[in-house]
Write a structure and sequence with these properties.
This protein is 48% helix and 14% strand. The chain is of the alpha/beta class. The chain has three domains: 128 residues, 3-Layer(aba) Sandwich (Rossmann fold), CATH 3.40.50.2300; 165 residues, 3-Layer(aba) Sandwich (Rossmann fold); 118 residues, Helicase, Ruva Protein, domain 3 (Orthogonal Bundle), CATH 1.10.8. The strands form five sheets. It has a five-stranded parallel β-sheet with strand order 2-1-3-4-5, sandwiched between helices. It has a five-stranded parallel β-sheet with strand order 7-10-13-6-14. A two-stranded antiparallel sheet has the order 8-9. β3, α3 and β4 form a beta-alpha-beta unit. The N and C termini lie far apart (73 Å).
Length: 448
């Protein structure tokens, strides 16, 4: 449902416009002066403003500037008399969408509002398509568990109001699945807003989610919309929801139940239309039992659960993911890598991958930064990765190759130290590695 604000000091104009627009089922707000209109912009999710230039308190041009600074995506249509058409043209230069001359006809009002909303929708669609064009993530689903998770995600995407809880270890791709749901839903022309609930202290997390009014606290110099309001029409992704403080959990529960928020320092509620997708690497059922997470909120969030298994439990996905990342980073860093040899594939399948997909991605990126060649082989692997893998003796030749890599690295370090007379800082510069890294390797290889 679209929200339209009318700012005009003439009662007859306001009432007439409100009547015309309500016929097309728009939600209409009215204001008789500029300051009241700006307050409404701060509190409601307005799509279009019909703005009179002659207001009793603030010049309409100034109101337009303030609207654009507060909410750049709001379209402003100027209402003007014949004598102020020049001012309307000036307003167009400042970002107004169009203008209507008084007196106006109902059909003309309906048409210009319809065209404005279509333009706004097209602009949002272009924004989404550009974002998808830059999309970096890729979902591999060779394993049955990942195929099942993708099927669930695409199914729930059809139902735009259903809350989703995605669980799994860090690095398994929870945010990727959340974005997939958003992009395949009817909300995909509106924002996908994400926030990590573990990254901010309680007071900052609340102000980021709900926003605040001017003067609500010492540093609140102006009013600010929260992320729940910024996500209007779209999706808000609450990552690491299990880390959210209990006091804030009750407020999120109220948002789910009422579909309303209240800014810090305000006494008015604001209606919102968002889907909530949350994610956690914690066992929320256990947290509920231990009274660290609200049971009622858990069941509100867990309407549609999706669980992502760790990478070590879906080995079918490891090699396809590794090859995808190799192709991606080879292009990015202008390398020649085309494939991964069988020994390295065997090593990858035996690694624990406690960092999951994120760790695999980082390993391939690091290799592409440091090395080049057509085939990624054991000599390209970081020594710490080889040391973390299980049962590598069963991979023919791998243990001896790993030992040779370590011996070669030790020899290079010794050569650098000899050339610099044992000066660690100069040796690190010669090897083009951080001094701390060199110290670590000196200790590792017991170099005196």
């Amino acid at each position: 449902m679209k929200h339209i604000l009318i700012i005009d000091d003439e009662n007859f104009i306001r009432e007439n416009l409100e009547r015309i627009l309500r016929q097309d089922s728009y939600i209409v707000f009215t204001a008789k002066d500029g300051n009241t209109g700006i307050d409404i912009i701060n509190k409601e999710n307005i799509d279009i403003v019909l703005l009179d230039l002659n207001l009793p308190d603030i010049n309409g041009i100034e109101v337009l500037k303030r609207i654009k600074s507060i909410a750049p995506d709001v379209l402003v249509i100027i209402i003007t008399g014949y004598a102020t058409v020049d001012s309307a043209v000036e307003a167009l230069k400042l970002g107004a969408y169009d203008y209507i001359k008084k007196p106006f006809k109902a059909d003309a009002i309906k048409l210009i509002v319809k065209l404005a909303l279509e333009a706004q929708s097209l602009k949002r669609e272009v924004h989404v398509l550009r974002k998808l064009g830059r999309k970096e993530e890729f979902i591999v689903a060779e394993s049955e568990s990942m195929k099942s998770a993708l099927k669930q995600a695409l199914e729930v995407a059809k139902y735009k109001d259903t809350n989703v809880l995605i669980t799994g270890e860090s690095g398994t791709g929870k945010e990727v699945i959340a974005r997939l749901i958003h992009e395949n839903s009817s909300r995909n022309l509106y924002p996908f807003v994400d926030i990590n609930c573990a990254s901010l202290p309680e007071n900052l997390l609340e102000s980021e989610l709900f926003g605040y009014e001017k003067g609500a606290f010492t540093d609140a110099k102006t009013s600010k919309n929260g992320l729940l309001q910024e996500a209007e029409g779209g999706t808000i992704f609450l990552d690491e929801i299990g880390e959210m403080p209990l006091s804030l959990q009750s407020k999120i529960l109220r948002v789910i139940e009422t579909r309303q928020i209240r800014k810090i320092g305000s006494i008015k509620n604001i209606s919102i239309d968002v889907r909530i997708i949350s994610a956690t690497n914690r066992d929320l059922k256990k947290a509920v039992e231990e009274k660290r997470f609200r049971e009622d909120l858990y069941y509100r969030l867990n309407v549609f659960p999706i669980h992502l298994k760790p990478l070590r439990e879906r080995k079918e996905d490891i090699i396809p993911l590794a090859k995808y990342f190799l192709e991606r980073f080879s292009k990015l860093f202008n390398r020649k890598f085309k494939d991964i040899d069988e020994d390295v594939q065997s090593i990858f399948l035996k690694c624990k991958w406690y960092g999951n997909v994120r760790e695999l991605r980082n390993v391939i990126e690091r290799i592409c930064i440091m090395h080049d060649g057509e085939i990624l082989d054991v000599n390209h692997l970081p020594s710490d990765l080889i040391e973390s893998c299980d049962d590598l003796e069963s991979v023919e030749g791998v243990r001896s190759l790993a030992d040779e890599v370590s011996a070669f690295e030790k020899k290079i370090i010794l050569d650098a130290l000899n050339k610099t007379g044992g000066n660690i800082l100069r040796a690190a510069k010669l090897l083009n590695i951080p001094r701390g890294t060199l110290r670590h390797k000196i200790d590792k290889y017991k170099i005196k």
